[in-house]
Design a protein that fits this description.
Largest sheet: 4 strands, antiparallel
Number of domains: 2
Strand order of the largest sheet: 1-2-4-3
Order of helices and strands: EHHEHEHHHEHHHEE
CATH architecture of the largest domain: 2-Layer Sandwich
Radius of gyration: 22 Å
Bound molecules: flavin-adenine dinucleotide
Helix content: 40-55%
CATH class of the largest domain: Alpha Beta
Distance between the termini: 37 Å
CATH topology of the largest domain: Gyrase A, domain 2
Number of helices: 9
Strand content: 5-15%
Amino acid sequence: MNGKAEILGYSTGITGAGPIQLIEQAGRTCYKSQGKITNDSAAKFVLMLRKLGHESVIEHSWVAVRFTGCSRAATHQLVRHRLMAISQESQRYCDESGFFFNNYYVVPPSIIEAGLLDWYRERLKQIDGWYKELQEKLKEAIKAGKTKGKVNEDARFLLPNAVCSEIVISCNFREWRHIFKMRTDIHAQWEIRYVMVDTLKQFQKLFPVVFDDFKIAEDGKSAALTKE
Ligand SMILES: Cc1cc2nc3c(=O)[nH]c(=O)nc-3n(C[C@H](O)[C@H](O)[C@H](O)COP(=O)(O)OP(=O)(O)OC[C@H]3O[C@@H](n4cnc5c(N)ncnc54)[C@H](O)[C@@H]3O)c2cc1C
């Protein structure tokens, strides 16, 4: 599986106009220039803020994104960012058995390049089997009164980092810019880089004045902030 980003929503402001207009409403308070707001003044105003580096003002708008098909290894890197709201698939509550047969895991490109795909898949299949076996053993032990442990909660200790994990992240524009800077960089890990470049492309289409100073590399595998 490959990671995918789906934009679920973003702040629109009371007029419903959109996140750029909301930032303009807030930002113009500083200059008491709300009277200068027209139908097409927001983009120019927000671009001016970006170029001056007044990033605190763009914090007024947020975007929520659902990530699917990312490994738990990748989502663990995402959740290290602290200025965000997170809701993630719970391995305590969800039954992850069958992750192998449901193709619910990630294969690093190096595994394919090294000719190790069959070997890798065989190990994942074994682990899937061991996870199910442990679930059954725990169920029996609970039934027999030997333990009060929870089945999925404890069987998950056998799960590999390769298993996919769904996650929804909401944060403000300033934090998204920070995340793109850190995670689309050529030195970032390949999987998080892949999905964050995809996310950045979507953000650039929807909110160009906030994100079009990131340049995506010709091979599409990384991006970098350009100097203005
Ligand atoms: C290429 C790469 C390699 C990495 N390798 C490792 C590794 O080997 N081991 C590891 O543990 N982690 C690693 N990380 C994760 C990294 O250490 C951070 O946990 C992660 O980048 C999120 O923190 P952040 O500072 O970027 O900012 P965020 O949490 O996204 O916060 C955004 C910004 O807000 C400000 N901020 C947030 N919280 C505070 C605070 N409490 N006090 C002051 N200012 C604050 C800072 O300016 C910060 O940059 C790596 C990250 C990258 C991008």
